[in-house]
UniProtKB/TrEMBL annotation, chain A:
<feature type="transmembrane region" description="Helical">
    <location>
        <begin position="495"/>
        <end position="519"/>
    </location>
</feature>
<feature type="transmembrane region" description="Helical">
    <location>
        <begin position="12"/>
        <end position="33"/>
    </location>
</feature>
<keyword id="KW-1133">Transmembrane helix</keyword>
<keyword id="KW-1003">Cell membrane</keyword>
<feature type="transmembrane region" description="Helical">
    <location>
        <begin position="154"/>
        <end position="173"/>
    </location>
</feature>
<feature type="transmembrane region" description="Helical">
    <location>
        <begin position="366"/>
        <end position="392"/>
    </location>
</feature>
<keyword id="KW-0997">Cell inner membrane</keyword>
<feature type="transmembrane region" description="Helical">
    <location>
        <begin position="201"/>
        <end position="223"/>
    </location>
</feature>
<dbReference type="GO" id="GO:0005886">
    <property type="term" value="C:plasma membrane"/>
</dbReference>
Automatic annotation (TrEMBL), chain B:
<protein>
    <submittedName>
        <fullName>Potassium transporter peripheral membrane component</fullName>
    </submittedName>
</protein>
<dbReference type="InterPro" id="IPR003148">
    <property type="entry name" value="RCK_N"/>
</dbReference>
<dbReference type="InterPro" id="IPR036291">
    <property type="entry name" value="NAD(P)-bd_dom_sf"/>
</dbReference>
<feature type="domain" description="RCK N-terminal">
    <location>
        <begin position="1"/>
        <end position="119"/>
    </location>
</feature>
<feature type="domain" description="RCK C-terminal">
    <location>
        <begin position="139"/>
        <end position="220"/>
    </location>
</feature>
<dbReference type="GO" id="GO:0015079">
    <property type="term" value="F:potassium ion transmembrane transporter activity"/>
</dbReference>
<dbReference type="InterPro" id="IPR050721">
    <property type="entry name" value="Trk_Ktr_HKT_K-transport"/>
</dbReference>
<feature type="domain" description="RCK N-terminal">
    <location>
        <begin position="227"/>
        <end position="344"/>
    </location>
</feature>
<dbReference type="Pfam" id="PF02254">
    <property type="entry name" value="TrkA_N"/>
</dbReference>
Amino acid sequence: MSWGVNWKASVGLLGVGIKYLAVTMLVPLVVAVAYGEDIWVFLVSMALVAAIGFAVERTDPDPDLGPREALLFVSLAWLAAAVIGTIPYLLAGYGTASTVGLQTGSFGALVGSIVNALFESMSGFTTTGATVLGEISTDRHSHALMMWRQLTQWLGGMGIIVLMIAILPEVAVNGAQLMESEAPGPELQKLTPKIAETARALWLIYFGFTVVYIAILYGLHLLGMAPNMDLFNAVAHGFTTLPTGGFSPEADSIAAFSAAVQWVVIPFMVIAGINFALFWHVLRGEAEIMLENAEFRFYAGSIAVVTAVLAVLLFRGAAPAIELGGATQGVTENSLRQAAFQIGSLLNSTGYATADFAQWDTHAQILLLFAMFIGGSAGSTGGGVKVVRWLIVGKAIRRELFTSAHPDVVRPVRLSGRVVDEDAIRGIMAFTMLYVVLFALSAVFLGLDAARIGIQLSVLEAISASLATLGNIGPGFGRLGPFGSYLFFPDTSKLLMVFLMWVGRLEIVPVLAVFISAMDSR
Amino acid sequence: MHVVIIGAGEVGTSIAASLASDHEVVVVDIDPDRAEQLKYELDVLTIAGDGTTSEIQSAADAGRADMVIACTDNDQTNLVACGTAKTLGDGFTIARVKSTEYLRTWQGNEGAFGVDFMVCTDLLTAENIVRVIGLPAAIDVDPFASGLVQMAEFEIGPESPVAGQTVSEADRFESLTFVGLFRDGEMTIPRGDTDIEAGDRAVVIGSPESVQAFATDIAPETTPGQADEIVIVGGSEIGYQTARLLEERNLKSRLIERDADRARWLAEQLPNTVVMEHDATDTEFLSREHVDDADIVVTALGSDEQNLLVSVLAKRIGADRVIAVVDSPDYVTVFEEIGIDIAINPRTVTAEEITRFTYESVAENIAVLENDQAEVLELELTEGCALVGRPISDIVSEIDARFVIGAITRDHKLVTPRGDTVLEPGDHIILLVDSDSVGEITAMA
């Protein structure tokens, strides 16, 4: 079973990554110490993860990756991170009523608990933000575990592979191929001659934004403008905003905080959906590169337009009068804030909420569904199809229409004045088609699978479940709303959604390419 | 002046011919037969051999040469020849190239490759085409005094309002001078009472605006200054450069290229040009894409035969004006006789450009008219030369050479010459001169 791939090399390198994942567990450990909570959960987890890492590393101590091995490695790395990430959930919840804790009562309960933990962990690393955690509160779960849940999103945001390239010299050798497979968007932008420096620059920008954001949030708390935003919450939300994650340790998400906090969160969510390479140019004093970038302009433009439309809908009463976000009908500030927040959150796949949009009128929900399809920018932390792909698909279609009337005209597709390669266009067309097909088939499967155990999904629920997991968005509509849960789905559906989050984060291609190459060489 | 010319092709021969009478010319060509033949055609010394080697260049006494002109058909040969010449002596080196890439490199660092002046055939030709397109009614247009002054040659059509008028009636523009009139291929110096007949070709010198206004006057039916529909046939370097220059002037064109890869490349380089991939000799295609409605068709295909075919085809289906690139100078008249409006020969264009450098520092710019019957020169007048300090009418009556001063620029301002205008040192004069009198006039400046 060679598959034409030197799988040992991929797995060997995986061990290196897993080893370092143990180090990241220091963060929840510190939280556990600070809150006087049980420190054994994370000590044992760390030991276990490190042991697994060293064991896996032994399969190939000196890994050498070719292009296929790189694809396999990237696919496996994200799966492994999700699997490893379940350990704290399972250990912490063992013997309690936690939905993600290890249950040993029966075989069915055992499987169910592991699937739940895997769902939560994959949702974290892929920055989806869909949850099966029954009750979200620091009373039911320890602060340390909640911080782990937030941290997984921060690690997954800029990409665990990019992080590995930035800090591990043995990974940096094959860095360009790896980053290409992981980075969101159709093409890899090398900012510096050395890929490790590019990775470091991206992580530094990401880190810098996170620090500034946490400081502002905590500053608001100190100024008395955000009573609930204590240091724990500031850090916890700092970990999930820039990676377009969406997890919150508060059951009410951002609705638990003051309007001032909500206004601060909006720009940072928008920033998270912008190509981070553009910030690199801005830092070097080349702000015009950002302003002239077609994707950035389209991204900013679509947020502005959709927000404006939604604000008008809310102002005219598309939301029920009494609910968490407060009344919007006839209230300008709240209409604008709710519209900007929900669009800033859903368009680039963050998944926070300040209102239960699952209870809004259908026409407003359809608008949100449309926004979910757009996605973030290439090179951002956002999910979805990505703005640049839609732009190129749109331009390619316009060209097709033009050339049907003028069959002899040769017209390259241009983006920001640069010619887009025909191979890239074909790849983008195939990706977009694949995305839509996978989304549609999954929606059908989820509907049928739920009916199998006697649950009727509404059309909007089935569609949004599929889209919210494949696009790494998080919340859907109906029972899957921002304050709802994915807990009621059968295990098979949850596993499908784990798969969707996985392939959605890696933009489908690496995972499917590994499968296809395996089947072809048989 | 000792001049070494490397390459005895059409360009080299044409340059040698115009220099042979006044200068000491050595022509080097790799083909012994060609060298032998030229020895009898022109009063020059010929050497057979590889002009890039120092051995042959020494034999041609290139070390002592005032000017070395490398004008073979091969870019690299010309560049190496100039480099070699620079190691032997300090003559002024001129290289003819086809590739605009070499020109760009050279422009970034003048003196690169040991080349003092570089003439890019294809770019030069494209610039000529674009000038002609910019003035639709003109047959030939050349800028002088860094664009302050324009020379233009027009053919007077039968329905032109000026046909039948006298020169003084037609010349209603303050800053425009009628300098020459060609009738049946013969040049006359026009006077105020000279009649203008249909079929005449008129040469005027003046400010670009007045030339533009004059063009509108004599050919009102053509859109002034701008042709709306321009079709370029053939994505050769000339075709590409033409489209690029048109883009720079905000004129949109359509470019037809047969080869798929080349068409793709062109489309990538030219964002504001519609590039079509098709065989331009397909009449069905031409009418489907409404090439028959085109105001201007430029043919810039690889061979004269193809250009001839497409030009005739374009003319036949009803294109207003057809400009053809003609590789062989012998065919220029053939093209024009069968009704192609303008035939542009890249070699003539190149020879003109190089020749202007051989008038030492005196003549700064030159245009050759009507198969070398007359030339338009730009001269900078030096202190104490024979032309300064006297009214123009005095000079004209004194010299029996045939010439007309068309424009004067003084301190970068245009001065319209009149009989009583006194020339001053430092003036640039733009004048039309009979080819036989060129040496005499330049000697006076």
